Amino acid sequence: MPASVGINRQVGRPLTGWEHVEQSIAVILTTPIGSRVMRREFGSEVPALIDRPMTNRVILAVYAATANALRRWEPRFRLTRCQLQQASLTGELSIALFGTYYPSGHLGDFTPDRSEMTSVVSLGRAA
């Protein structure tokens, strides 16, 4: 039995394992803090940053907001580094995340599954 099970937000099929964590990471990073009615503190500061011009200072703030949100909300993934993947003139912004996957981290078991996992998350439009 998988440690965690969820539903794919796009097609409604069951998600388990790393796929479930990837979806959770995307939800965490794209949800503005204060936007969930019963969980006002859930989410990240990333949505407030992506409408700014992508200066070095803002990119660093995106990295910090990403690290803080994942540390707080996703115990199944420990971020070790992140890298801006795309910041195009059309406003697309995505970030590559590298870290350790803990399949049962939400249960307090921090035994890693693999040495390093990678996920690329589309964060939306930048200014």
Gist?
The chain is α+β, with helices and mostly antiparallel strands. Helix content is 28%, strand content 28%. The chain has three helices and five strands; from the N terminus they run ββαααβββ.
Strands ordered across the widest β-sheet: 3-4-5
Q: Can you tell me the overall shape?
A: globular
User: Strand pairing plus helix content: what structural class?
Assistant: alpha+beta
Cα distance spanning the termini: 44 Å
- What percent of the residues sit in helical stretches (DSSP H or I)? 25-40%
Task: Give the DSSP E fraction (strand runs of 2 or more residues).
Answer: 25-35%
Total count of domains: 1
Instruction: Tell me the CATH architecture.
Output: Roll
Mean pLDDT across the residues is: 87
Strand segment count:
5
Query: Major β-sheet, in short?
Result: 3 strands, antiparallel
Helix count, per DSSP?
3
Which spans of ≥5 residues are poorly predicted at pLDDT below 50?
none
Q: In CATH terms, what is the fold-level topology?
A: Nuclear Transport Factor 2, Chain: A
InterPro entries: IraD/Gp25-like
Protein name: IraD/Gp25-like domain-containing protein
Pfam family, one: GPW_gp25
